[in-house]
Amino acid sequence: MIPRYTLPEMGRVWSEENKFQKWLQVEIAVCEVLAEMGEIPQEELSQIQQKAGFSIDRIKEIEEVTRHDMIAFTTAVAEKVGPASRFIHFGLTSTDVVDTAQALQVKEASELIEKELLRLLSTLRTQALRYKQVPAIGRTHGIHAEPVTLGLKLAVWYSEMERNLHRFRRARETLEVGKLSGPVGSFSHLSPQVEEDVCQKLGIDFARVSTQTLQRDRHAEYMCTLAILGSTYDKVATEIRHLMRTEVQEVSEPFGSGQKGSSAMPHKRNPVTCENISGLSRLMRSNALAALENIPLWHERDISHSSVERVILPDSTTLAHYLTIKLNDVIQNLEVHEKQMEVNLHLTRGLIFSGTLLLELVRKGVLREEAYQWIQRNAMRVWDDGADFKTLILEDPDIQKHLTQKEVNQVFDVQNTLQHIDTVFERVFGSS
Question: Is 189 designated active site?
Answer without folding.
Answer: no
